[in-house]
Design goal:
5 strands, Factor Xa Inhibitor, about 100 residues, 3-stranded antiparallel beta sheet, alpha+beta, single chain, 2 domains, about 25% helix, 4 helices
Length: about 100
């Protein structure tokens, strides 16, 4: 990325070190976060697989206990565990952060 404050064009200020070697100093624009698109937040891939966002922005999740060992569970319980449920209000903030929202 080219820094607009310096004429060198490489985004770094060049200064002499103690031993006479050239030292690269980070551009002041980087320290102030001006004109930067970094750092970008990455979506937590495990969370993205487990939660879906509805059209209105609500979070939905699958119900636990409906994957295996289903023979011993009653039909009534298995029917209750079908489908999706809303994410609790206590967990919404954390899940949104993991999803990068």
């Amino acid at each position: 990325m080219v820094c607009s404050e310096h004429t060198s064009g490489n985004g770094f200020v060049r200064k002499k070190g103690r031993v006479g070697k050239t030292v690269r100093w980070a551009c002041p624009a980087f320290a102030r976060n001006e004109d930067l698109n970094m750092p970008k937040n990455k979506t937590h891939s495990g969370t993205a697989k487990r939660f879906k966002v509805t059209g209105k922005g609500k979070l939905r999740r699958e119900r636990a206990g409906h994957r295996h060992i289903l023979e011993k569970k009653s039909s009534k319980l298995k029917r209750r565990l079908e489908g999706t449920a809303d994410v609790s209000a206590n967990d919404t903030k954390k899940v949104n952060k993991l999803l990068g929202r």
